[in-house]
Amino acid sequence: MVLVSAVRDYINRMLQDISGMKVLILDSSTVSIVNSDFVSQLGNDVFCLVSIVSVVYSQSDLLQKEVFLVELVDSISKSREPMSHLKAVYFLRPTSENIQQMRRQLASPRFGEYHLFFSNMLKDTQLHILADSDEHEAVQQVQEFYADFVAIDPFHFTLNIPANHMYMLPAVVDPSGLQQFCDRVIDGIAAIFLALKRRPVIRYQRTSDIAKRVAQEAAKLMYQQESGLFDFRRTEISPLLLIIDRRDDPVTPLLNQWTYQAMVHELIGIQDNKVDLRNIGKISKDQQEVVLSSEQDAFFKANMYENFGDIGLNIKRMVDEFQLVAKSNQSIQTIEDMAKFVDNYPEYRKMHGNVSKHVTLVTEMSKIVEERKLMLVSQTEQELACNGGQGAAFEAVTNLLNNENVSDIDRLRLVMLYALRYEKESPVQLMQLFNKLASRSPKYKPGLVQFLLKQAGVDKRTGDLYGNRDLLNIARNMARGLKGVENVYTQHQPLVFQTMESIVKGRVRDVDYPFIGNHFQQARPQEAVIFVVGGTTYEESRSVALQNAANSGIRFILGGSAILNSKRFLKDLEEAQRIARTSTNLV
After folding, report:
1. pLDDT tens digits for range 203-245
2. I need a labelling partner for 476 at 20 to 30 A (CA). Which of 21, 80, 127, 430 fits?
3. Is 207 in contact with 461 (CB distance < 8 Å)?
4. What is the pLDDT of residues 289-308, one digit of tens each?
């Protein structure tokens, strides 16, 4: 069972057994799971379902299930209009706020029937509140459907935690904030394994306090507090849950990306499989927000992990095919030509609706690449991430810091990548780069780079980030250097790739990734969930998808507290630094 189909199955079961016209009521979290767009608001604060651009469910899917209205639970409280002809299907997180909302709404019911579904485990006290509130006996059922995560792709999920920076702060700085962060992570991990109907053995990254805390609390929930719920009495080998810290690989979220899905997120941004294009100039209304989903878009599914150059060629091939149909002699040689052609032939958009979207995305990204000189910048980034040679690296970074066309954020990332690689080897030259950055890009103080080193420097990391600790990794890198690489812009492999290799080969060291409790792996697992506290990247989800396609005998699932690009990673870093500076408790 993969994640997208697991969530879709839950929603199918919610809706198909309730006959008649329905209203689907969501909260701010579950709306990401079903991912509805509310683009029309009526005067009485009732939201009209106009367009569903769903992570797991489309508009037509909902209409087939007789769902004619979608509302947010907050808006229900504001409206008094009776709708007794509708049956209300609630899908909410079991938070105390949502339980109180339900208590108020059940006191004066607006709908004919109430069917309550919660995305995670309900406490007994919450059930009692719901029962006591249902004086009108409107509630037909209360069920737990474990979909407390956003299934981005079949093997990739996120929890979309807004305060993602919390993982970088010591517990003494904001104990309640860190507890809320941990609680949300535990809820998400629990829902994944309840959806998979498995109880895992749990390992964690030894050098990370937050990974250890999450692992211990997850084990306590699964093996003590809710032991019966997680006891599926299955005899095969238990899956592995490996909890790691984003700071063990700070390089991956700092790099520019050159494969399609990762590049769109880095340069434009993806939120719950949607891309907001309203800020990129003249664009047709139907293209202002587009969906990038491997479940709904065949072209994207086929090309999401392809290199940028290949994407352009593949789009051109589809445009060429239509030209034959349209009998157009217009010459198409560039991305700009493709964009003009699509604009001139509206029927093309009908026949290949998705392609006009991809032409728009590739056109915009090409513009950004040229404006920010990203091919030049990225070549040095890849050298810093993958190859040695401190002297040449210092010269390359210095030249780019002096280049007027290089943006402030790219200068910052270059200095960070250099500092992570050479913090011990060249402190004098590192200080020169700090000074150069401060003079060229004064909005970024060197303190942010130093804060990154304090968070994720060599003394803090467990994994062999640069392949220069472990003899096997050194040999692999030498072999790759001798053979050369297929593409200088995509030679980097995230640390999670090495981690998966170690799991497949049974080489995960107990001293680096200890087990929790006395639950050990008896044999190689057939399924492994790698959870990254601090967030995942699309480069890492690509590695997981390719690893699964290789049929190694282990199915990997990747999850995290957020989905990062360099902008989000730096924002989290800046926020953690700001809080750390103002905290008197920080040692």
Report:
1. 999 999 999 999 999 999 999 999 999 998 776 789 999 999 9
2. 430
3. yes
4. 888 988 888 889 999 999 99
Contact 215, 243 (CB under 8 A): yes
In whole angstroms, give the CA distance from residue 511 to residue 503: 14
Cβ neighbors of 182 (< 8 A, separation 6 or more) are: 210, 213, 214, 217
The answer for residues whose C-beta is within 8 angstroms of residue 459's C-beta and 6 or more apart is none
**How many CA atoms within 13 Å lie on the side-chain side of 330?**
21
Q: Looking at 265-390, which runs of residues are DSSP E strands? A: 274-276, 289-291
- Can you say how many angstroms the Cα of residue 73 is from the centroid of all Cα atoms in its chain? 25
What does the chain come to in residues? 587
Choice among 100-114, 283-297, 502-516 with the minimum mean pLDDT: 283-297
Both ends of the chain: CA-CA distance in Å? 46
- Spatial CB neighbours of 246, under 8 Å, sequence gap ≥ 6: 167, 253, 532, 533, 534, 535, 560, 564
Cα 490 from Cα 382, distance rounded (Å): 8
**Inter-residue contact 68 to 49 (CB < 8 Å):** yes
Per residue in 241-257, pLDDT (tens digit) is 999 999 999 999 999 99
Supply the pLDDT for residue 324: 73
Task: Specify the DSSP class assigned to residue 235.
Answer: -
- HSE of 533, CA atoms in CB hemisphere, 13 A: 29
Residue 46 DSSP label: P
Q: Using alpha carbons only, what angle is made at residue 161 by residues 155 and 166, rounded to the nearest 5 degrees?
A: 120
- How far apart, in whole angstroms, are the C-alpha atoms of residue 390 and residue 421? 9
d(CA 531, CA 559): 5
Query: Which residue has 């108020």 as its token pair?
Result: 104
To which H or E segment does residue 153 belong?
Answer: strand 150-153
Cα–Cα dist 221/227, whole Å = 7
Residues sharing a CB contact under 8 Å with residue 428, sequence separation 6 or more, in sequence order: none
Nearest-angstrom CA–CA distance, 363 and 451: 36
- Beta carbons of 217 and 464 less than 8 angstroms apart: no
pLDDT at position 128? 96
